Automatic annotation (TrEMBL):
The gene is coaE. One of its GO terms (cellular component) is cytoplasm. It catalyses: 3'-dephospho-CoA + ATP = ADP + CoA + H(+). NCBIfam families: dephospho-CoA kinase (TIGR00152). It comes from the Bacteria. GO terms for biological process: coenzyme A biosynthetic process. Belongs to the CoaE family. Its EC number is 2.7.1.24. This is Dephospho-CoA kinase. Pathway: Cofactor biosynthesis; coenzyme A biosynthesis; CoA from (R)-pantothenate: step 5/5.
């Protein structure tokens, strides 16, 4: 079974590209979805996060992601503490999902991970797809999408390796700075290349 990484950066359009791959028939595992699953109410993950970051649970007992995000985005130490709790749980859940798909006969999986390169996961992949946009486009989209001012947008961008630095790790680059038709054409080319690899 082949395992491919799909990555990008905040507001690069990775979710759009991920959806396009699904529409073409790809089996996509989303690290963000898995990360939410491992901190659902009643999980050891949520208990560990709540113990390390007091005050991040909402009245319903669920994780208040906005409150947690405010605490970790501007503070590398806090972010590292959160990652130390969540990343091993995500990895374990991911491996279970891969095994289940392999048992179903799935031949290739696309793992959608925002921090694929930052966490070193790209070294275990058979190829990496990078969703890329110029930094000024990325920042403008982030400010518009999340209603952030420039300083807040810069802080979030600084928490990730710049897209230009990720290019050297990519097997394929999808330039998402144009229209959707252009992006879709590139995704189709990448998918055909993956299928051709067997």
């Amino acid at each position: 079974m082949a395992l491919y990484g799909l990555t990008g950066g905040i507001a690069s359009g990775k979710s759009t590209v991920s959806r396009m791959f699904r529409e073409l028939g790809a089996h996509v595992l989303d690290a963000d979805v898995i990360a939410r699953e491992v901190v659902e109410p009643g999980t050891p993950g949520l208990a560990a996060v709540a113990a390390r970051f007091p005050g991040v649970l909402g009245p319903d007992g669920r994780l208040d992601r906005a409150k947690l995000g405010t605490r970790v985005f501007g503070d590398a130490t806090e972010r590292a503490a959160l990652n130390a709790i969540v990343h091993p749980l995500v990895r374990e859940a991911f491996l279970h999902k891969v095994q289940a798909l392999a048992e179903q006969g799935v031949e290739r999986i696309l793992y959608d991970v925002p921090l694929l390169i930052e966490t070193g996961l790209h070294t275990n992949m058979d190829g990496v797809v990078l969703v890329w946009v110029p930094r000024d486009v990325q920042k403008a989209r982030l400010m518009s999408r999340d209603g952030l001012d420039e300083a807040a947008a810069e802080a979030r961008l600084a928490a990730q390796l710049p897209l230009d630095d990720k290019r050297r790790y990519a097997t394929w680059i999808v330039d998402n700075s144009g229209d959707l038709a252009s992006t879709r054409a590139q995704v189709e080319q990448v998918w055909q290349a993956m299928l051709a690899r067997g």
